[in-house]
Design goal:
heterodimer, A: alpha+beta, six-stranded mixed β-sheet, five-stranded antiparallel β-sheet
């Protein structure tokens, strides 16, 4: 089922959680709402579910207005951040709950319920835990039971609030892959909320990056990563180095470094900021065409890439990530002066960058 | 191996000793003396003191006021705790303060309030009397006073409990299609039942044992408006010690039975949980064995 969100506003006292947000979610897609805490992503999810009422705007399910439809009638599955399993019920009864509270004439028979619940438990590979209570399960098991419970009522939409937030790194990775596979099998329209960019980029079909109640950018994960639309998105999606300069008629100047851009053709000597990811910086011992130079402070050589921290003359640090081979070829040691050249940079004019100051 | 986290032996014995002596002097000894005094002149006198008409009438009235006050305050307490822990509304802090009022006001003052409201010389009391309902110095007044003083117990027990539990499970139930009543019955009630039971036990104990407020509105008419505590006082003032302590022993017995019921219920719950833990452990072993 497709979902349309039109001009949604939501205020909590003085705090604006959502400011005129519009979004189309295609039927069967897996969408991630990504942003820092307080950006409004969870509020948006809860408004889609009907757990929260928007102050203004509409939510449409498959083209019909569902803004005033009661939660219980929206046919959504919701997985809560802390699972919200019924602690006094067995795993079986938890998963059966949605079926057993149906009105008598819609309710499946006991055997049918039993069959469906056991099928779901097999699907999440926890049928052997049917008689256990939630308190006896691990975090990952609880998460899978919560998912099975929400799927038992055959929802048209699956909503997940920070589904992997409370799990340790290894379980997180497994569950991520598992959710992706599950979605491939079931093709149910799914929306999940996360503050972890890696998770959003890895699992989803499309990512919605949010900040301060606004949508900053919507797009495919690779698209968003390669072509961030705003300074905020650039900084939020990963480590990045900032270089201040000017743009004049599409020509970027930072110190002695010059670069023709395919954009900002009408800029007239405007202040600009260039964002370069650590792995898009090449290190060299020659000064020709370098963007900046710095003294090597630290070298972290654990793993397949070597991260080199440079200190510029003005005290700013630059972080570069180079391959092990490149690092060996350079043969640098702390204290050396090296030059950096960008392979790829994202340039935003100052006024846009200034507005979106983001501190991690 | 020396245990670094415990005190030395003499300190431990001294602390345990102090606690036990205190418990004996202030709880056990009075309890024993009640039964001792009650049974001093033998079983026959004890039983006749309990079965004489005035005593029976006091027991009956005590039961009536408890039977009315406990369900009323049960419903009110759950409703108030639900509203306070689940919703934000104007006047919420005022409601929380008002719930505590019966604790803050002296029971005698509470009784006087009802006399000022419903006494024969007041507007409300006069009107009610003209319509054949006497409130003060009659059963309705006693019930009113009992309901008032036992008002906070259930709500006070439930509010912190429900606030700490949060509303996630209820929201999950509603998303799964449960109605408000189904959510309350199948999710909320099981979550709060122990707190609720405890609140009811406290309400009941206080309803049966209340003296001050009831004493003011009762008028002490023997065989008509005496509850057990009032009856005990009258007998005691008449130097009828066996009668007084026999009735007092009933209240003491009530306390003991309440505690017994509570521990049995808790024990039963623990056993259930242990059984399920065992079953899960077995299932886990079987699942591991089944894997190649």
């Amino acid at each position: 089922m497709s979902i349309e969100i039109r001009n949604i506003r939501k205020q909590f006292g003085q705090f604006t959680a959502l400011d005129n947000v519009s979004l189309d979610i295609a039927s069967g897609e897996l969408l991630a709402l990504l942003g820092p805490s307080g950006c409004g992503k969870t509020t948006l999810l809860r408004i889609i579910a009907g757990l929260e009422k928007p102050d203004a705007g509409q939510v449409l399910f498959a083209g019909t207005d569902a803004t005033h439809t009661h939660v219980a009638e929206r046919q959504v599955g919701f997985v809560f951040q802390h699972y919200a399993l019924f602690r006094h019920m067995t795993v079986f009864d938890n998963v059966a709950f949605g079926l057993s509270v149906k009105p008598r004439r819609e309710r499946p028979s006991q055997e049918e319920i039993r069959e469906r619940v056991m099928k779901l438990l097999k699907m999440v590979q926890l049928d052997w835990l049917a008689e256990a209570y939630p308190g006896q399960l691990s975090g990952g098991q609880r998460q899978r039971i919560a998912l099975a419970r929400s799927l038992a009522v055959e929802p048209k939409v699956l909503l997940l609030d920070e589904p992997f937030g409370a799990l340790d790194a290894k379980v997180r990775k497994d569950l991520r892959r598992w959710l992706r596979e599950l979605h491939n099998d079931m093709h149910i329209t799914s929306v999940f909320v996360t503050h972890d960019q890696e998770e959003a980029l890895e699992v989803s079909d499309r990512v919605v990056v949010m900040d301060h109640g606004h949508i900053e950018q919507v797009g495919r994960p690779d698209d968003i990563y390669e072509h961030p639309a705003t300074p905020f998105v650039t900084q939020f999606l990963g480590d990045v180095n900032l270089f201040h300069g000017r743009v004049d008629a599409g020509q970027l100047t930072i110190g002695n470094y010059e670069q023709a851009l395919g954009q900002h053709q009408d800029a007239a000597g405007d202040a600009a900021v260039a964002y370069v990811r650590p792995h898009d910086l090449d290190l060299s011992l020659q000064a020709d065409g370098a963007l900046a130079q710095g003294r090597v402070e630290h070298i972290h050589a654990v793993g397949p890439v070597v991260r080199v921290e440079l200190q510029q003359a003005d005290g700013q640090t630059i972080e570069a990530a180079v391959s092990k081979e490149r690092f060996r070829a350079l043969g640098i040691v702390p204290g050396d002066t090296v030059y950096v050249t960008p392979r790829k940079l994202a340039v935003f004019l100052q006024e846009a960058a200034g507005q979106q100051d983001y501190v991690i | 191996m020396a245990d670094l986290t415990t005190e030395s032996r003499p300190v431990r014995y001294a602390l345990t000793g102090i606690a036990l002596v205190f418990l004996f002097l202030f709880l056990l000894l009075p309890l024993i003396s009640v039964f001792w005094e009650a049974l001093q002149k033998g079983w026959a006198l004890y039983l006749s003191a309990l079965t004489e008409p005035d005593a029976l009438s006091a027991i009956k009235l005590t039961l009536i006021s408890a039977v009315i006050a406990v369900p009323l305050n049960l419903v009110f307490g759950v409703a108030a705790a639900w509203a306070i822990s689940r919703f934000e509304f104007r006047g919420k802090s005022l409601l929380i303060t008002l719930i505590d009022l019966p604790f803050a006001v002296s029971p005698v003052v509470a009784g006087l309030m009802f006399i000022l409201l419903f006494g024969a010389n007041t507007v409300a009391g006069g009107w009610l009397q003209d319509h054949g309902l006497q409130v003060i110095f009659a059963v309705p007044g006693i019930v009113l006073a009992t309901v008032f003083v036992t008002f906070p117990f259930v709500a006070r027990e439930l509010i912190p409990l429900m606030q700490s539990q949060g509303a996630d499970e209820e929201q999950a139930a509603i998303v799964l299609g449960a109605s408000g009543w189904q959510t309350f019955r199948k999710v909320t009630l099981p979550k709060i039942k122990w707190g609720l039971l405890y609140g009811v036990i406290l309400t009941n104990a206080r309803a049966m044992g209340e003296f001050g407020a009831v004493s003011v509105v009762s008028g002490h008419i023997r065989g008509e408006t005496n509850t057990i505590p009032l009856h005990v006082e009258i007998l005691y003032n008449e130097y009828n010690f066996v009668g007084a302590f026999a009735c007092a022993s009933l209240l003491a017995l009530l306390a003991l039975v309440t505690l017994l019921v509570k521990s049995m219920v808790e024990w039963n719950l623990q056993r259930q949980q242990q059984a399920s833990t065992l079953r899960t452990a077995e299932a886990r072993l079987q699942a591991q064995a089944a894997q190649p």
